[in-house]
Structure formats: structure tokens, C-alpha cells
Design goal:
By secondary structure, the protein is mainly α. It is built from 16 helices and two strands. Helices cover about 55% and strands about 0% of the residues. The protein has a two-stranded antiparallel sheet with strand order 1-2.
Length: about 300
């Protein structure tokens, strides 16, 4: 059975065999007692704090995000504060979080919020989706976590919880499917505040207990309802799971080049960049990628700088 077929089967189970209400109460109760005290979950974070966290947490663990997030909100407590700075300052402040295009997208979203919405993160899901760099997941997460709205929030952790608890498979498909989205909507509580709590609780359950490699099933609040456990915890049968490499890749070279530009106050000569990597062909390719992505700029005199920096 393919991963997609397994998820399609899960849809039928969710509508005919699985009682969503039986999952909601224990998971939300577990979350009430076990949720981590994270700054973007505090009331003072506001919608902007939630949005910043969602951009930063994509493919990046909480431990790496926390110090950058706190410094970011100290420096730019409102979208207009960030929008007033050159986009290169967002790239500089992003530090070593990785995937620095997220910094440009967040800067673009901040500029759009300042221009279109009076500096306030919009509450409307469609207006959130219209912001630069904001996709379905981020729009749903901000609407849910910041404004208590009813949306299916599907990140990797939630997808894994649903795959195991309802589909009976160890892992979800590599890419989010329409079937998974339908299943998430079927499992969503009707009351908006409860739905928002459910979204946060299932995400936390996947992060803390229903982890990818070593799930702590003995502490799971829905162990008895879990289809994967009832089936004997069968090993993954779908396509091989994606693994990310870093050492020796263009991503590593790009990171080294950006580090030089972040750490020096002004434009940087090409010679300073050439020293960071031994392979001239790969170095040139990585530099070209940074230029085409808008993460750096080349000045007429041949020096390089972060976009908009002096």
C-alpha cells in the first residue's frame, strides 16, 4: 500500500471509525500540563511575535531559534520597525538559522503589513495568505495561534501524529497531500478556541513525544487510540524518507560566504570571500546563487554587500 493510499484509507477511518472527540480531550489536557513555556506562546508576543516564530521555526529546532527570536523582537518589536530597515539587516540578524531567504520573506511581509494594514498583522486568513512569503501553513498558524481561529495547521509534527494515530503508518508522505489536509479538517474541533488549542497541542505532542526517531509512546495521552500502536507499530513501507546533508554542499558554502558579509560592517572585496572555500567552481556557483536570490549585492567596484546596506 502506498503512503497516499494509506492516508486515503485513514480518511474513511476518521469519518466512520475514529471518533475525533475521543482524541481532542486527552491531547488538549496533556498539552495543558506539558506545554513548553515558549516566548511566542505568551500573550505579550502578539500576532507579530507568532509570525516571526513561524518563519524562524521552519526546518529549524526551537533551541536554535530562541536566542535569535528574542533579539529580533527586541530590535524590531513591530512590523513597521523591521520594514524601516534595509532587507540586508534582516539577513544579518538572521545569523546562522539557515535558509536565509526566510529573512528576506519576513522583511517583505513586514513591509506589506506596514503598507497595507496599518502596521498590524491582519486577522483575515486570506489577507495573511496575500502577504509575501506567507503560505497556507503560515497563514493558518498565525490565524490559529495569534487569533484563536479555526484552521487546520499541518506541520511535520502534526502530520506525523495524524499518520500514526489515525492512519496507522509510522511516517506521513514526504510532501503534504490533499488527503492529509482533508483528514486534518475532519479531525478539527468545531469550536474555534478549542480548534486553536488542538492545533498547538498536536504540534507539541509531535515535538515532545511522537517524535520521528524515538517516540515515547508510554507517555502518550492517546496510546490506546493510536492505530499505529494497535497495528503493532509496523515499520515504514512508503518511499524512503528524505535526509538532508550539509557538509560539503553549496548550502554550506553559501553559509560561509554570508557569514563574512554579516560579520563585517561594510562592503567586502571578492578576495575576502574567496578565502572561505577551496573549490573556486563551487564557490562561484554559491556566490551566484546568493546574488540571484537577492541575499547579497555586487557593487560597481566589484565588492559585495548585504542588500541595501551602506
Amino acid at each position: 500500500m502506498t503512503a497516499t493510499t494509506a492516508t486515503d484509507t485513514a480518511q474513511g477511518e476518521a469519518s466512520s471509525g475514529t471518533d475525533p472527540d475521543a482524541l481532542h480531550a486527552p491531547v488538549i489536557e496533556w498539552f495543558h500540563h506539558n506545554a513548553r513555556d515558549l516566548p511566542w506562546r505568551r500573550p505579550e508576543a502578539g500576532a507579530w511575535g507568532v509570525m516571526v516564530s513561524e518563519f524562524m521555526l521552519q526546518q529549524t529546532p526551537v533551541s536554535r531559534v530562541l536566542p535569535v527570536y528574542e533579539e529580533w523582537l527586541r530590535r524590531w518589536p513591530r512590523p513597521a520597525d523591521l520594514a524601516a530597515e534595509p532587507s540586508g539587516e534582516a539577513v544579518r540578524a538572521w545569523g546562522r538559522l539557515g535558509y536565509p531567504r526566510r529573512a528576506l520573506r519576513l522583511h517583505g511581509a513586514a513591509a506589506a503589513i506596514a503598507e497595507r494594514h496599518g502596521g498590524e498583522v491582519p486577522t483575515d486568513h486570506h489577507q495573511l495568505l496575500a502577504l509575501p512569503g506567507v503560505g497556507e501553513y503560515t497563514a493558518a498558524a498565525v490565524a490559529s495561534f495569534a487569533y484563536g481561529q479555526r484552521h487546520a495547521v499541518l506541520d511535520t509534527n502534526v502530520r506525523r501524529v495524524f499518520a500514526r494515530a489515525v492512519s496507522g503508518t509510522e511516517y506521513p508522505p514526504n510532501a503534504t497531500t490533499a488527503a492529509e489536509r482533508k483528514l486534518a479538517r475532519l479531525l478539527l474541533p468545531e469550536e474555534p478556541t478549542t480548534a486553536a488549542r488542538w492545533a498547538a497541542a498536536t504540534m507539541e505532542l509531535g515535538a515532545l513525544l511522537c517524535t520521528a526517531r524515538t517516540p515515547d509512546c508510554g507517555r502518550c495521552p492517546i496510546l490506546e487510540q493510536c492505530a499505529w500502536r494497535r497495528a503493532g507499530s509496523p515499520a515504514h513501507q512508503g518511499p524512503p524518507r528524505r535526509t538532508q546533508t550539509y557538509v560539503g554542499t553549496d548550502r554550506q558554502v553559501r553559509g560561509k560566504l554570508l557569514a563574512v558579509l554579516r560579520e563585517l560592517p561594510g562592503p567586502v572585496p571578492r578576495a575576502a570571500l574567496d578565502r572561505v572555500w577551496h573549490d573556486p567552481e563551487q564557490r562561484s556557483r554559491a556566490l551566484g546563487g546568493l546574488l540571484s536570490d537577492g541575499l547579497i549585492e555586487r557593487l560597481p567596484d566589484g565588492r559585495y554587500r548585504l542588500p541595501g546596506s551602506s
